[in-house]
Amino acid sequence: MSEAWRKSHNISILIYHFVCPAKYRKVVFNDEVDEVLKNTCLEIEKRYEIKFIEIGTDKDHVHFLIQSVPMYSAKKIIQVVKSITAREVFAQVPEVKKKLWGGEFWTDGYYVSTVGQKGSEETIRKYVQEQGIEKDYKHLHYDEQLKLF
Predict the structure, then answer these.
(1) What are the backbone angles phi and psi of residue 93, rounded to the nearest 5°?
(2) Portion of the chain with pLDDT greater than 70, in percent
(3) Other C-beta atoms within 10 Å of 61: how many?
């Protein structure tokens, strides 16, 4: 469970769930890109007041569960994450740039939602951890399919 961040004038537990698709929804995530992405996120944590609780990649998009401080807006957080990770992926895995034209790694848009600490953080944590894992949906009943909450 995430801990409260104590600052001189506030105490906060601000957790965001971001979903960022690759440009053109291209399938660019593999083990090598995933490793660069995760290592880069660890470096971002050292320079910014951003903590990556979970990172889950699928073939063409990434889910981030991120904790930060009130002085960083959701827009600021994702700008930092997308710009630094794109630069590092292109530098360390140059073949990815060949799959994408225009020199951009991420789409311009993203999904963001806040995560409540009481219960739903664990639900989204599990969901993010399971990204990219093939599931057998044949044996599920209609009312059991794809429930997030």
Answers:
(1) -130, 75
(2) 87
(3) 21
Contact at 8 Å (CB) between 50 and 80?
yes
Q: What value does the mean pLDDT take over residues 79-100?
A: 96
The answer as to CATH 3.40.50.2300 being correct for domain 5-144 is: no
Separation CA 138–CA 28 (nearest Å): 27
Phi, psi of 10 (to 5 degrees): -160, 160
- Backbone phi and psi for residue 3, each to the nearest 5 degrees, phi listed first: -95, 155
Distance from C-alpha of 21 to C-alpha of 63, rounded to nearest angstrom:
9
What is the reported pLDDT for 135?
66
Provide the residue ranges of all domains of the chain, joining segments of one domain with +.
Answer: 5-144
C-beta separation of 68 from 49 below 8 A? yes
Place of tokens 């990770």: 85
Coil, strand or helix: which one is 63? strand
Q: How far is CA 4 from the centre of its chain?
A: 21
Instruction: Indicate left, alpha or beta for 146 from its phi (over 0: left) and psi (-120 to 50: alpha).
Output: left
